[in-house]
Amino acid sequence: MTANPVEADIKAKIDANPVMLFMKGTPQFPQCGFSSTVVQILDHLGVEFGSANVLETDDLRQGIKAYSDWPTVPQLYVKGEFVGGCDIIREMFEKGELRGLLESKGVTPVAQGAS
Question: pLDDT tens, 6-63?
Fold first, then answer.
């Protein structure tokens, strides 16, 4: 079975970015509070990430939900692995687990210790 063009585009974005956020809006101008929260957490951790605005096309908005089998946006991927949405990311951050996950996957903050 061949992937449809939307699935192929989603996979390409995930493969091209060690940390990839599918969100409503952009990191500079989030279009919902949940997306804004995840952007703030990633910025706080000093993590570089790619992003895709699911509001640009309905195909992408629906396609990412089908791709992950997760009903809501935002969705965060680290090294190709789906991590979760806003509530999961916030909980992991508050418990210190998100930094540990990122470090275990070889994702290092850019704001700290950058040379």
Answer: 999 999 999 999 999 999 999 999 999 999 999 999 999 999 999 999 999 999 999 9
Residue 46 three-state SS:
coil
pTM value is 0.92
Positive or negative: CA dihedral 24, 71, 22, 110: positive
Mapping DSSP onto H, E and C, the string for 59-114 reads HHHHHHHHHHCCCCCCEEEECCEEEECHHHHHHHHHCCHHHHHHHHCCCCCCCCCC
Q: CATH 3.40.30.10: does it fit domain 5-104?
A: yes
